[in-house]
């Protein structure tokens, strides 16, 4: 083994496999993004959270940024690179939800969701690529969804946007491999995040709706933000240097398992 790999392994054993690494996380002020930023920092990374809010706990760096605004994205990425002196990891996580069948959302809503969920990722990655090409451990992780690969009722628009991200991840991975940049994605199941909380609060029977969402996943519960964060960090870690073009399901078995009904 090389001295470099031995050093990374030593870092992993001490929980510091991201030592000397700089990262940005979009949507990093709450939910999966915040859990990921906190975990990256705990494992040695300097982390900037790009979000509509810049209120994040120390030692995270909060930068206000709307991923719908290309100039704002480029400015925030440039500021993070200036502050940290480098950029190694991009977690393109910012996204919004949508409900309804294919009949239920207007063209304006389709454009709004794709502007955040898909173009927001494209804007972030293209702004970051020049700095990532200078890194010896460059990694991009995109937050897609199990809705990209599993048909879920009342999620036509959301599923379409997350399916586009799965395809975009593979295309970006193919383009970036020559530059030494790895690109992967996570596909969470229904996660216990603020957006899901708001969705449940708007239901006629929040407790029944939560139970139904939990039952949809074979493990019988919602996925936690921290579990998704660990999957993201696995894909982003220098120790996963041969992993690229992968969609990692974190879904409580929803996609791959077919269990017998109880009783």
TrEMBL record:
Q: Boundaries of each Ketoreductase domain copy? A: 21-189
Under the heading Gene3D superfamilies, the entry gives: NAD(P)-binding Rossmann-like Domain
Which keywords are on file for this protein? NAD, Oxidoreductase
Q: Does the keyword Transmembrane helix apply?
A: no
Q: Name one Pfam family in it.
A: adh_short_C2
What InterPro entries does the entry give? KR_dom, NAD(P)-bd_dom_sf, Sc_DH/Rdtase_CS, SDR_fam
Q: Which family does it belong to?
A: Belongs to the short-chain dehydrogenases/reductases (SDR) family.
Can you say what this protein is called? Answer: SDR family oxidoreductase
